[in-house]
Write a structure and sequence with these properties.
Layout (H helix, E strand, L loop, with lengths): L1 H150 L8 H4 L36 E2 L12 E2 L18 H8 L7 H6 L1
Antiparallel strand pairs: 1-2
Amino acid sequence: MLDGCVRALEVEELHKKQMLVIESLAKERDEFQDQLNEQIHKTNKIQELLDLEVQSKELQEDKFKKIVMHLMEERKMLLLELHKLQSRVDKTENNFLTSQQATSELRSEIADLNATSYSLKDKNHRLTMETQDLREQLKEQSRNLATLAQKTAHMTTTPRHVRNVPKTNPNIRTNPRPQSLYIFQTLPEEPQPEIARRFITNQKKETRRSVPNLHFPQIADEDEKLPEKPKRGLLKRLSMRLGSPNVGKNLINLI
């Protein structure tokens, strides 16, 4: 019996100890549960914060992507404008080069035209001076020939054997009418040289009745004879009248 009581007491004590242990364990479990709940709550808050941060990051990334896309579009537009400006610059450079070439060609043409105009002006001036000299010489020759015609109007013709006229010569009037003063103003045209030269006179002795002989000086030969010109009409008759012994030989050579 005693053993049974002792065992029952021991069992009760063990049961009490076990209950105490269970209570302590339950308390610890509750404490751990509270701590766990707190940790879960904290983790939930942290998760929420992380989610918010992720959302904010996503929003920022979206904004950043939008900004980057906008900047890329602006860059494309700027590149297109730059390409257009470059093409315009190239066109303007080409136009400027062509205009420079055209202006250089025009300047060279203007220089050539100026040179030709200067040469033409010089030639025109020379020709005007030569025509003035020729007019003055023509006037002098016409005056001399008119005075010669007036002086030789009263002269008669010499015999045929003195004048050395061929027998086939037609009849000549012995006392012709006085000739006009302006019959010798138009001279026959002479071939002009390529380079215009100044008119000079022969350095021969001039008599009272002689007229200065004008020519283009190619070679200064006093003995050079001019080619004989055909005598027609009034010149022929005047030369026949000048064949008399009263007229000098210098006047005959002028015709």
